[in-house]
Amino acid sequence: AVLRWAWDALPAEGQGRASLHFRPLEDADNLAVTLSGLTVASGRSRVAGTIEVVVEPAVLRLQQVGLAFQPIESGLVRRLSYGALPASVRGTFAGRLEARRGGPLTAFPVDRLALAFTDARAGGARSEVALRGTLLAGTAPGVRALALGRASVALASVRALVPSMPALTGRLEASGSVARATPRRAEGVALRLAWTDGAGTTSAVRVTGDGAWAPRRGGIPRVSGRVLLALEPLDLAAVARVDSTLPLRGRLEGTLAAAGTLDSLGWEAALHAQGGERGGGWLRGRGVAHVDALAVASTVALGIERMDLSRWVGTPDVPATAL
Q: Under a CB-based contact definition with an 8 Å cutoff, are residues 314 and 248 in contact?
């Protein structure tokens, strides 16, 4: 509580110890407070390490940060980030934060953040992430220049947050980079996503593009942008275990590209099925789709090349073909 004059998000309850060093800065109105040998406990949260707080007349900056979370509760993370972490996320985080140069919490450059999250809403499901970049908190949360070394997300946690999502099982792995992302926009996305379902089947896709979205009363959100999906491959048998109405069970490779808005979305696809001496052949198409809350309509131009339906359908009752 004694440090709340410097950082109003700190909880009033708790205890700990640290060595404090006060250092005046070039601007006489500013003061640097270094906390070394820090060990703090609040509720079930435990934080240890070193941090330097720079107090300015209107801005709080953190620098020389090297903190270990042993662990820290989601409620305290939400408070320290000024609400950037949704209230629906409940559990504990363990790991380490390093930010030598640091900056204000509204745009905080991170050298390395490695966290493991234990989800109290999903039976203790564990997710992990390792990243660097600039974290944006406050009224405009998001990320900038994000380099995602690895993320491993338990889909049970996602279902706890979004109960209406399909009944996906297993884990989602992600790596790559994002130039900038906020709740309404994503720019410079280049990610590889790999889904391993509960049966151990892995599907992977590379995603590149940009997009923007906004809510719209009485309809689906306004969405615009461009995206390229590269399947590496997509196992349709795993998808069919989620949606049994899907007639295909093969493993698809190829690309799907789209650009525009949901009112007029141009798309192009080039797909083929794995397997067979010559593979499963190609399906190529293009068109313009129109999406609203009730239906999806599209103009379509399709071409097929040496298509082996047995490889696309993926069941033994379908004979081999060469269409």
A: yes
Q: Enumerate residues 6+ apart whose C-beta is below 8 A from 286.
A: 266, 267, 268, 269, 300, 301
Q: How far is CA 65 from CA 113, 136, 160, 233, in A?
A: 11, 17, 32, 41
Mean pLDDT by 10 residues, the chain (323 residues): 60 79 73 82 88 74 91 90 85 96 89 97 95 86 94 94 87 97 95 95 96 83 94 92 86 94 92 68 90 80 82 75 70
CB–CB of 189/210 below 8 Å?
A: yes
Helix H, strand E, coil C: the string for 89-151 is CCEEEEEEEEECCCEEHHHEEEEEEEEEEEECCCCCEEEEEEEEEEEECCCCCEEEEEEEEEE
Compute the distance between CA of residue 208 and CA of residue 307 in angstroms, rounded to an integer. 28
Total Cβ atoms within 10 A of residue 125: 20
**pTM, rounded to two decimals:** 0.80
Counts of helices then strands in the chain (DSSP H, E)? 4, 17
Residue 67's H or E segment, with its range, is strand 60-73
**Three-state secondary-structure class, residue 286:** strand
Q: Within 13 A of 33's CA, how many CA atoms are on the CB side?
A: 15
